[in-house]
Design goal:
The structure is a homodimer. Helix content of chain A is about 35%, strand content about 20%. By secondary structure, chain A is an alpha/beta fold. At the A-B interface, strand 7, helix 8, helix 9 and strand 11 of A face strand 7, helix 8, helix 9 and strand 11 of B. Strand 11 of chain A pairs antiparallel with strand 11 of chain B, so a sheet runs across the interface.
């Protein structure tokens, strides 16, 4: 299918590369169409890889992935506008983290979240928050961490979540039973607020290649 | 040993009951010495159980546990004052949650935490943040959730943390390898900010008897 990937950083690059490998046409969107990282990716990723602006990539995809820097995601999505995203599912993998003051801080949390902000500003788009609690290597290959560990998903559209869960299995090998549906998009504040713990664990463990499993008693 | 347990709610009751069963002298502290829940606990828990004010319980214990409602913990600890806590380890199991507006919210987060607030206000006390990421039944018996799941600990004093980790093993059966030291007390904001996810998981799973295991790749 045609997929728009917004963002040319590590997350966007990893997802876009894997999606091209799977045979999808992928347009990577950046602030400017001549973005160097996006152009370099296009050249290395082969014939199914395209580059464009954020708006062009969103218009291109029948599915759109937000892989922009979370602190700048709203600005990037405003460059797209409502039109190219209308009626589509937007997978939001971003975390609104600001590292400028040393200790990482969320730019929105507790009473709101990036996922909710996006859904409010784009009410005709089905925002599905997913992927933001794992490193990008795990997104496209959960087996890089052995065992049954869990991915969290949330969003207001049950149909969009079901379709996303099916694609996560088909494309990346995520087992259905290892994906936990946390409910509506307000749960985005729960998974985004997990990031400070995730970042501290990365520091303590010395690797971003980890994930958590929920055990029940 | 003599232990002061501040708070007569479910967490304080569970910990105090288990500690008395283990043969410790425990004084449960409340705002007033005649607190009904604390008195009822004392009568049911046997001869090693005592009741008093927050200040009396803190003075009584050579180890002190903060099990007060996190939104009110600072007020409770100010009733104690620095003197009764000086030179002691204070295990802080509280989460600064406010449920009054419907959706639970943290009263402090992101740039600060309850654990840090306590440590700043009581610089001569070794604050160890622990227990706040699991239900109280798991605190005193990790086996209620099968498998290897993790408990997080943090604090500025390595000695206080080592002593706490030893006691968690001896008293409650927490395996050393299932306790993750996240570093100094600033990590309290990481574990406290996990609570929105914990609360959402409790709602989705339908039980507070769950815990997370960190898997490494």
């Amino acid at each position: 299918m045609k997929i728009g990937v917004l963002g040319s950083g590590m997350v966007g690059n990893t997802l876009a590369t894997k999606l091209v490998e799977l045979g999808h046409e992928v347009m990577m969107g950046s602030r400017t169409a001549d973005n160097e990282k996006a152009q370099a990716w296009r050249k290395s990723a082969g014939g199914l890889a395209k580059c464009g602006t954020f708006a062009e990539a969103a218009a291109f995809g029948s599915l759109v992935l937000n892989c922009t820097n979370g602190a700048n995601s709203m600005a990037a999505l405003r460059l797209v506008g409502a039109g190219p995203l209308r009626g589509k599912t937007l997978l939001d993998a971003a975390n609104p983290l600001d590292f400028s003051s040393g200790a990482p801080q969320l730019t929105v949390c507790n009473t709101d979240s990036l996922g909710e902000q996006i859904q409010r500003e784009f009410p005709e788009t089905n925002v599905v928050k997913v992927f933001n609690t794992v490193n990008c290597q795990l997104m496209t290959d959960p087996s890089v961490v052995p065992g049954d560990h869990h991915l969290f998903i949330c969003g207001n559209s049950a149909a969009a979540k079901a379709d996303t869960i099916a694609k996560l299995g088909e494309w990346f090998g995520w087992k259905r039973e290892n994906i936990i549906d946390l409910g509506d998009i307000t749960a985005a504040r729960c998974t985004e607020m997990y990031l400070p713990l995730w970042l501290r664990l990365m520091s303590v463990l010395g690797t971003p290649r980890f994930s958590i499993q929920v055990h029940q008693g």
